[in-house]
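call fold(seq) -> C-alpha cells
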Amino acid sequence: MTDLTRLKVSLTKHNAHKVARLLKDYKAVEVFERLDEVHAEAAQARKNLSALPNDALPPVWEKVRELGPDAIDALVLVAIIFSHHQLISAMAQASNRRGFAGVIRRGTAQKVYSNFARVIDQLGYATKVERGIAVSFDLKGMFQIPGLGPCVAELLELKLAEASWDRSNTLLDEVVRLKFQDVFGITADELRAWLGLGAQPSAAGSNLTAKDQEFFQDPSEGSASKKFKFKPGHTERAVDAIEKSPSPKSRANRLHNEIQNKLYNFLKGKLGPDSVGTEQDTGSGTAIDLATQHNGKTTFYEIKTGASVRSCIRQALPQLLEYAFWPEEERAEELIIVSHLPLSPDGERYLRFLKKRFGLPISYKHFDLHKNVLR
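ret:
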C-alpha cells in the first residue's frame, strides 16, 4: 500500500530550486559535483531528484534536458512537490482553485511556507506573492511544454517507489487513485492522457506554430498556379533558448526550428546536399517543411511538435495531403510525419490502417533530439 507520509525531505533548507540551473548548465551526471555552485544542500537535492542508490541521477533528468530549460524548471517543481507529503497536500488543497491556478496560504510553519513560495516563484509558476501571507500559482505553462508529461510520469514512478507502492496496479491507475490530478488542477482522464501520451489538457491553450495556425485558418482556396519545383538548400532557423515564460507558440516554434535544422543536416548527410531542401513552395501558396528528391522519388516531410503522437498526426495529415495533391496533382510519392515523440502503438495501428484501407503513402518518423537521428 502506498504511504505518502514516507515522502519526506527537509522543508527548511534553502535553494532547492537552484538545482534547475545546474541541470541547464551541466550534464545530469555532473549535478551532484556542482551543488556548491548554487549553495544547495546535498541531502535535499538527492531526495528531490530521486537519486539512485549509486548516487547517480535517474535517466529522466537527462531526457528532460533535451526538452529545454522550461521543461527542466517544470520537472524540478514537480520533483520538489512530490518529495514531501505536506507539499502534495498543500497543492491539492490550495484555496481559490481554478483549474491550473490556486493560492497557498501561510500556515503555522512560516519558514516552510516561505521556502515553498520561493520555489514556486523562482521556477516561474507564481502569479502573485504576498510576502508572509500567500502565494498564487498557475501551472498552465507546464502543460504547454511538448513531451513533458511522460517525463513527469517517469519521475512520479520513482516517487511512488519511495512511498512503498507495491505495483499491484498500473502507474496511471495509482496516481489517479491517490488523486494527484488535484495537485495539477486537471481531471483524472487529463492526467492519464498527459502522463501516458503527453497529451495537452484542452484548457492549456494552443501550441501550434504560426505557420500551422495560418494553414488551418486561411480562408482562400489556394488553387495551384504553378508546378512544384524542388530546390535544395536550407536557411538555419533560430533556436535560441527561451528562459522567461514563453508562450506556447514560442515554445513550439523553437522546437520546430530545432528539429528542422537537425533533420536537414541528418538527411543531407545521408542523401547529399543536392537532394534535400526546406520550406519548399508547393505552387499553391503553401510551403513544405522539408522535401527530398533522390533516385527519382520525391518525399515530403512535415514536422510536428504536438503534445501527443495523436495530435501530431491529426495536424500533419491534412497538411501533407494538401501539399502533395491539391487540387489534383501528385507532387510526392511518400509523405512522412516527423516529431520529437516516438510513435505510439495506437498511432502505428492507425497509420497502418490508413495505408491498407485508402492506400495513403503516409508514415511517421521519430527524430531523436538526443542522438540527432531519424528513427
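The mean pLDDT is 88.
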